[in-house]
Amino acid sequence: MRRARNTLSWLASREVNFAPLHEVSEREPIGKVMEKRCLLGLFSFSIFLAFDPAFAAQVETITESGKPLIRKSSGGRPFTVHSTALSDRQLSATSRLARQYPWKTSIVTTVFWIGEQPTGNNPVPNRTSSWDKQWPRSYGGFDDPNPAHRSNYIPVKFKPRQNPFYCALPYNDKARTGHRPEASHVVPWFKEAYQGPAVSTCKDRWVAIRKGNRTVYAQWEDAGPFRTDHWQYVFGNERPKPNLNKGAGLDVSPAVRDYLGLNETDVTDWRFVNFSEVPRGPWSTLGENNTFVINGRKKGVKAR
Question: 68-74 and 59-61: which strand pairing?
């Protein structure tokens, strides 16, 4: 308030001409005129501060480099925007990760399931995965895709021992022994995920899959559809190769299908995500391979 009153007193001592700009400019230099117009704006703002002390107490402007530009109290909690960090605040951690793993858009997506028998368009049965020779046993049974035999994203006959939200992408980092020669160069997280030559660095990785305004999160549990070597698409910029299923580049489980409301052949977008990006949901509750469940056991917290 004292600063506002001092400003008012100072402005009152100044001669401010309120004549129209074209009339003033005939008698005075334009620079002088603009100075007075700026004083008029400051005068109006000071009047506002003088009659609204609550606002005056909330806003503090500081112009020194590297210091807060605006400090505003809202509900007693200070909020500060730093001039040197503004761009970082605008670019959140999520958006930076999105640049690290960009969306693969308009990908033909098909539904597959653990225990699936071979068909004309799917010659490979899903009794095994690229990383689990006893996949149905590890899962706990046949992941029946029939909606009439499912409830809450799982089969009604049993409770899965692995995450029912799973998917397949056409790359396998494992070779007969060790890893493929290119794996350490093309898998972005290879070094941090490496646990020895017998363990895949891709299995259980989290993937975000979206259809319209819905996004689901699933774990990568198999290589396919059709190919297991297309790293240029999975980790690069290529599109899926032509195949019997309209060029499908992503297989998803019945749980993913049901959450997104997909047809048996549909189109979705997908991208890799770090676990820190994955919110809780129906994909966070079940499975010995589920990161949420594993972390919960370490902390003694039940997954939800």
Answer: antiparallel
